[in-house]
Amino acid sequence: MEIVKAHAMILSEEDPSFPWLRQIEYNGRISYKSEDKITDDSAPKFVKMILHYGHESVIEHVSASVRFIVDRGVTHEIVRHRLASYTQESTRYCNYGKKGGGIRVIQPPFKHPLESFDVWFDCMLHAERGYLRLLELGEPPEIARSVLPTGVKTELIMTANLREWRHFFKLRTAKAAHPQMREVTIPLLRQFQDVFKIIFKDIVSETV
Ligand SMILES: Cc1cc2nc3c(=O)[nH]c(=O)nc-3n(C[C@H](O)[C@H](O)[C@H](O)COP(=O)(O)OP(=O)(O)OC[C@H]3O[C@@H](n4cnc5c(N)ncnc54)[C@H](O)[C@@H]3O)c2cc1C
Prior knowledge:
The chain contains 8 helices and 6 strands, in the order E-E-H-H-E-H-E-E-H-H-E-H-H-H. Helix 1 packs across helix 2. The protein is elongated. By secondary structure, it is of the alpha+beta class. The two termini are 31 Å apart. The strands form 2 sheets. It has a 4-stranded antiparallel sheet. Flavin-adenine dinucleotide binds next to helix 6.
């Protein structure tokens, strides 16, 4: 068994021939038929104005994909966001017993790590033993998965437009969000703020 660090990263590359900011400006200016006002530096001011007036459908024309490595509990929460596309590691088709590998798990952020880690680790080993034993008995992975823990490492690709990502970050970086969700979404929001500055800079994640 291996303990894996949870994280998330943006996968999308910008198209250099038509940068995302210019694309949003161009689409937005169709509303006002003001394409003739496009200059080398007109996009940031225009896009700020669009967001200020809540004309958010304009930012739906640009999408971003993210690769999450999190536990199964966190992927269950992420896939509740309906305005997105997903591809998820399959516990039906992946055989974690192959090549003597065993399962991979994500360690939660314990309040009392000294006491809690050993209890958690024991439970993970126990689940792994059960899973491997079921495979040995001839059960297929899609049946043996019944004993996998919520802590099992899961990879997930999520693609959504920037409006949906804004909605996602507002919900999923808030204090009320699950700590293991916030562990990946707060650094991910910073990546979005680096890449898509104007669109995400007003979203402030509470750090505690
Ligand atoms: C802190 C927290 C606790 C939660 N606890 C629970 C829980 O205990 N149990 C539980 O089941 N879920 C829970 N959820 C999940 C939550 O109810 C939503 O399913 C999830 O956050 C997706 O949000 P959404 O529906 O706004 O977003 P999306 O599905 O991403 O949709 C984006 C927006 O599109 C619109 N939209 C999408 N689909 C429809 C539709 N069919 N009709 C009308 N408008 C639509 C809405 O305006 C929506 O906000 C929790 C979420 C959070 C953040």
